[in-house]
Amino acid sequence: MKLNITAGKRPLLFFTLCFLFAMAVVAFNNRNWEFLYYTAIVSTLLLVVVFYHKTLYLTKTIMAGLLLVAVLHILGGNVNIGGTRLYDFWILGYWFRYDNLVHFIGSFVATFIAYNILQPHLDMALKRNWVLLSIILVLMASGIGAVNEILELGAVIMLGASQQVGGYMNNAFDLVWNFLGSAAAVFFLMKPKPE
User: Fold this and answer.
1) Cα–Cα distance measured from residue 139 to residue 130, given in angstroms and rounded to the nearest whole number
2) CA distance linking residue 151 with residue 54, whole number of Å
3) Low-confidence residues of the chain, pLDDT below 50?
4) Considering only CA atoms, which of 164, 19, 23, 153 is closest in space to residue 84?
5) What sign results for the dihedral spanned by CA atoms 39, 70, 177, 83?
6) Cα–Cα distance for residue pair 111/88, rounded to 1 Å
7) Measured at the alpha carbon of residue 184, what is the angle toward residues 55 and 40, in degrees to the nearest 5?
8) Hey, which residues does 85 pair with through a beta bridge?
9) What is d(CA 20, CA 29) in angstroms, rounded to the nearest whole number?
10) Could you give the CA distance from residue 143 to residue 112 in angstroms, rounded to a whole number?
């Protein structure tokens, strides 16, 4: 398998490798096994992206979006503000946390990934049926979000991270913010393009 990273994508790869290594060291030093586990998962996904970015039609912008999501996620579990873990930090009152922001952005990016993977294989009838295509994309991104929740369940079962991950309401709100992020992405994707 040939590794073909263009010059424009090398800085993204270099930054990502350095960041993940540094955060793995921080998580290990803090005995934050949950985020060491997540860093391993993100690193595995990075390998998939590096080897298959052309097959998956991932543009430089989408790869930068993936990097943003990875950075936000890893920082969320390794940074504290005034004794509060960043993931538990309330951004707006008591209705919008940092965790919600990460899920929103993550699903936004996942929807663009789903579209880029599907787009070369779509016939014109489906491309013109923006309602059906929007539903398909939202369901695909929601499925990716559900896989993320399954990975969080792995942290709860294997690492006893139920206190950090949260209960049913956290899981449900994660899915809601995933849906909203995907719906926002569909709005941008399906916006009429100037002729």
Assistant:
1) 14
2) 26
3) none
4) 164
5) positive
6) 25
7) 50
8) 80
9) 14
10) 14
Structure tokens at 108: 């936004």
Q: How far is CA 75 from CA 62, 126, 161, in A?
A: 20, 39, 17
pLDDT tens per residue, range 16-62 = 888 888 989 988 998 888 888 888 998 888 888 877 878 888 888 99
The structure tokens 């960041």 sit at 19
3-state secondary structure (DSSP) of residue 81 = strand
User: Which helix or strand (DSSP H or E) is residue 91 part of?
Assistant: strand 90-92
How is residue 134 written in tokens? 């929007």
Helix H or strand E encompassing 85: strand 84-85
CA 92 to chain centre: 21
Residue 80 phi, psi (nearest 5):
-120, 140
Q: Determine contact, residues 89/165, Cβ cutoff 8 Å.
A: no
